[in-house]
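Checklist before submission:
- one chain only
- standard amino acids only
- sequence pasted in full

Submission:
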Amino acid sequence: MKTIPCLLVGTALLTVLSGATTRVAAENWPHWRGPAFNGASPETSLPATFSKTENVKWTAPLPGPAAATPIIWGDHVFVSSTDRESRSLLALALDRQTGKVLWQREIGPGFKQDDRSTYASPSPVTDGKIVFFYYGNGELAAFDFAGEKLWARSLHKDYGSFAFLWTYSTSPTLYDGKLFIQVLQRDVQVNGRGRADAPNDSYLLALDPRTGKELWRQIRPCEAVAESREAFSTPIPVERAGTRELLVAGGDCLTGHDPATGKELWRWGTYNPTRIGHWRLVPSPVTDGQVALVCAPKGAPLYAIKLGGKGELGDAGVAWKSEPRNASSDVSTPTFYRGKFYVVNGDRQRIACVNPATGETDWTGELGVSSKIESSPTAADGKLYFINFRGDVFVVDAGQEFKLLHTAKMGDAGEDQARSAVAVSQGNLFIRTNGKLYCVGR
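Returned file contents:
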């Protein structure tokens, strides 16, 4: 193993669809939920066992903690990071084969606003030509693969600071030739954050990837109250029966939008009928092409919402809801892989395999640890990979029964709140802890 004295983690984007029928090039991981926006990759020949020394191709130290998932396109790995010493935000590109830093750019000052997250929680995204870095303080910048800045803007300056109790961490999505960003926030200021001179609207934003100019901004109202208006989810595309939609979860509801105009096509709600005020939403939606899965927070059920509807869907739009003791997720976004949903319950350190057609749980498995899990599972090569706060990476068999294949202790002493998803590209796993990025492969 060789150690490279620099950073890495990133995002690459391909304009692909979030459906069971989508197939893409295996070598790229362009979005934090992978090439098909569902947490899965068609990669094979991935290691089932590894450690800090076993099956490690290289290790890159990171300048500061971040929850952003690495993204990979070709021989480039892109990573968003903080710099602990300078208290600034960084965009980095590394060589996929060696871990060598190709370029590093400082986006601006900023580190964190609370003790749970940093501003480098959103993951980058790429289309193979331009890479986009976005941060929880609203800074957004586009670079070519050589590291030349193409444009930059601040959403705080343009639309007002984000009205969130916790640190905003929605990742951008590239799809249909547009860069999409959602801001689902409180309607009033919180702790001095948010606009005082105008309404704090929640919105879905579409930008021209070449220039950063606004194409449209769709206001997204909701009936949620207080913290339940806040969402940390990411807009997820889906194609079905010749139609294209963006799925947006948060504010006690799920909506489908036209990616060309932002127009709301349908709405389902609610997973919070009593309007509890502290049900912020973290998991992004995921789909099998027939239903959209939305995870109600705080140990509540999963809801499968039928795709293809129009207007207010009501109860008839619900295909099924789970038994929360069997399948529930407060933070981790589920994965769709080989015809099944895989759902991690991070508070109970448990994973469930769920049938998308019925909502029945095929199996559940206890991971045998006490450290919380907030990373989202990644599926490839018949296996599921995910990490807990302590930096332990779990490898679970994506088969007909629960099998914990391996647990790798990748965190350093004192590791806490590691939550990046594992990225997969060209036969390698890219595993991010707070202090290092590992390239793991056979």
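Reviewer check: The radius of gyration is 20 Å.
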